[in-house]
Design goal:
The protein is 0% helix and 51% strand. The protein is built from no helices and twelve strands.
Length: 125
């Protein structure tokens, strides 16, 4: 199926910006939507944003809406997450998933076999 690998994480001060990248391989043409999730220390993994591969319709968690922007490049099989106005509470390991189900229903269920390895984002005050 779809395999993904994230990059672009790092340390940034609050109010700063960072762009994450997700490189996809495999049968991306079979993917309806891809997305980003994150897991902060002591917290459960949560949905961040998703994008439908063919038409580009996007979905965002309320906690990051208006600050983060998800985008993609179908030809390059790349997905991005532009993060602006970063807050300390954005600190987490960010994961790319190559096949997110239930985007229309709002359930955002990532396939267990479509995860990247994660990239650490740390926001300092």
């Amino acid at each position: 199926q779809v395999q993904v690998a994230e990059s672009g994480g790092g340390l940034v001060q609050a109010g700063g910006s960072l762009r994450l990248s997700c490189a996809a391989t495999g049968r991306t043409f079979e993917t309806y939507a891809m997305g980003w999730f994150r897991q902060a220390p002591g917290k459960e993994r949560e949905f961040v944003a998703a994008i439908r591969w063919n038409d580009g319709i996007t979905y965002y968690a309320d906690s990051i809406k208006a600050r983060f922007t998800i985008s993609k490049d179908n030809a390059k099989k790349m997905m991005y997450l532009q993060m602006n106005s970063l807050k300390v509470e954005d600190t987490a390991v960010y994961y790319c998933n190559g096949d997110v189900l239930g985007v229309v229903a709002g359930t955002f269920r990532p396939r267990d076999d479509s995860w990247g390895q994660g990239t650490q984002v740390t926001v300092s005050s």
